[in-house]
Amino acid sequence: MSRTLLDCVRERIVRVQRQYGMSCEEATDVVCESLTACLCCLRAHHPDEPADGLLSHLMPGFLDTVIRKRVADHYRRQRLEQRAIAECTRALAARNPEQQALTLLLADEIWDALPENCRQVVYLRIYEQCSWDEIAQVTGLGVSATKMRFQRGIEQARKKLGVTCDESSPSNNFFIGSTLAGETALSPDGGENSNATTDLPLEHRPHTGAGEPDNVAYHRKQRRTRRGREDRSKR
């Protein structure tokens, strides 16, 4: 690395440390990633320019703008990781066999309420946390079509289960936090809801035809037996 690039990197690292309260390692990663992104972009437009010469084509303040965005991304990822850890900790602390069985049954009730042609889109969006572009690629639909199918599936499932998006019953956990566009929404208590069922372990997710652990098969069998009894009692 040339002297010019070293000076550029060193100056930004010190500034990021002081301005954003980052450690030296975090600040170094942010600055180097930002500088690399800028140099790659400039290299595409000036393929024969030496590395030092590339900096002369950099617009004033552009590198600092990229650094600010990288810092924001860093703290956003950090918050998401902390939230996920806290939620997993709470879930593990509260878990017991009865709650596991109830959660499984609720997830299956929701899954059964979804129209069949909407299940794949809802599963990929809610459980796998795929982007709309990724879902469109998997399903072969357009992005707009995947959003419409997601919206239609959620609306019909809500209607079938008799719940609304502002109810706080356990059966509504699947829906709170998913707006009609599938983005993050607010829960009834005013905080962000992470969709309780999206954090479920694999054995607590709705049945999709794949292999499943023995305890899941047991609860699913119990559920089918219960449904059969209810159907016979109605006859």
Question: How is this structure best described in words?
Answer:
With 235 residues, the protein is mostly helical. The protein folds into two domains: 3-81, no CATH class; 96-234, Arc Repressor Mutant, subunit A (Orthogonal Bundle). The protein contains nine helices and no strands.
Helices, strands, pairings?
Layout: H1 3-20, H2 24-45, H3 51-55, H4 62-94, H5 97-113, H6 116-127, H7 132-139, H8 143-161, H9 214-234
How many distinct helices? Answer: 9
Mean pLDDT: 69
The proportion of residues forming helix, as a percent range, comes to 55-70%
Alpha-carbon Rg, integer? 25 Å
Question: Largest beta sheet, briefly?
Answer: none
**Cα-to-Cα separation, first versus last residue:** 81 Å
Name the helix and strand elements from N-terminus to C-terminus, one letter apiece: HHHHHHHHH
Low-pLDDT residue spans: 165-216
**The CATH architecture of the largest domain:** Orthogonal Bundle
Shape: elongated
> How many structurally independent domains?
2
- The CATH C-level name of the largest domain is Mainly Alpha
Q: What is the CATH T-level topology of the largest domain?
A: Arc Repressor Mutant, subunit A
CATH superfamily of the largest domain: Winged helix-like DNA-binding domain superfamily/Winged helix DNA-binding domain
Structural class: mainly alpha
Number of strands: 0
Percentage of β-strand residues? under 5%
